[in-house]
């Protein structure tokens, strides 16, 4: 019975979160600033960074008890973050209903960064989110991912920015 009630509670939390909830914490002007930060970052390295903010998980994920990580990995594929020439795309995923943060990195960048570094980055984002500083948390994550990309995939002098993926945050 407790498991069923927990499932219903999670379902309610996710169904009551909607795009309006995302817009309250990340209004259009914040999303525009984040898009500009992604674009500026990608001019300094050859990696690709995608931000994805989702209000709540789809019902099918909730009934199965699927974690945010499973959804982030699925979106990593659906948003084609894996499909970059140097396999150096990174997805920063925020599930608003649970304040869950997932960072999914393609194999090119992931071979240079250990799992603990990604977890620490997500933990720092989580601290900002708990304080209601969503833009600050996402900006900090962008800066940290950018620093990793510049360290391992710097853009060569005069090399054009191919911009393989859109810079705008995805809101689901």
Q: What is the element string, with H for helices and E for strands?
A: HHHEHHEEHHHE
What is the strand content? 5-15%
Can you tell me the residue ranges where pLDDT is under 50 for at least 5 consecutive residues?
none
Number of helices: 8
Can you describe what's shown?
- By secondary structure, this protein is of the alpha/beta class.
- 54% of the residues lie in helices and 13% in strands.
- The chain contains 8 helices and 4 strands, in the order H-H-H-E-H-H-E-E-H-H-H-E.
- The protein has a 4-stranded mixed sheet, sandwiched between helices.
- The longest helix has 19 residues, at 134-152.
- It is globular.
- 33% of the residues are buried.
- The model has no long low-confidence stretch (mean pLDDT 91).
Helix and strand topology:
Layout lengths: L1 H15 L2 H7 L2 H15 L5 E7 L4 H6 L3 H11 L10 E7 L4 E6 L1 H4 L4 H16 L3 H19 L17 E2 L1
Helix pairs in contact: 3-8, 7-8
Structure at a glance:
The chain has 8 helices and 4 strands. By secondary structure, the protein is an alpha/beta fold.
């Amino acid at each position: 019975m407790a498991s069923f009630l927990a499932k219903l509670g999670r379902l309610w939390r996710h169904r009551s979160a909607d795009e309006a909830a995302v817009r309250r914490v990340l209004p259009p002007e914040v999303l525009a600033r984040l898009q500009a930060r992604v674009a500026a970052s990608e001019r300094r390295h050859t990696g690709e960074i995608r931000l994805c903010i989702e209000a709540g998980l789809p019902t099918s994920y909730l009934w199965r008890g699927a974690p945010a990580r499973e959804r982030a990995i699925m979106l990593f594929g659906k948003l084609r973050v894996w499909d970059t020439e140097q396999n150096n795309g990174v997805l920063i995923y925020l599930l608003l209903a649970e304040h869950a943060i997932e960072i999914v990195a393609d194999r090119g960048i992931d071979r240079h960064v250990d799992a603990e570094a990604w977890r620490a980055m997500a933990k720092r984002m989580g601290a900002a989110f708990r304080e209601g500083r969503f833009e600050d948390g996402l900006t900090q994550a962008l800066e940290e991912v950018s620093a990793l990309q510049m360290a391992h995939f710097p853009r060569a002098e005069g090399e054009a920015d191919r911009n393989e993926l859109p810079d705008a945050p995805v809101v689901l």
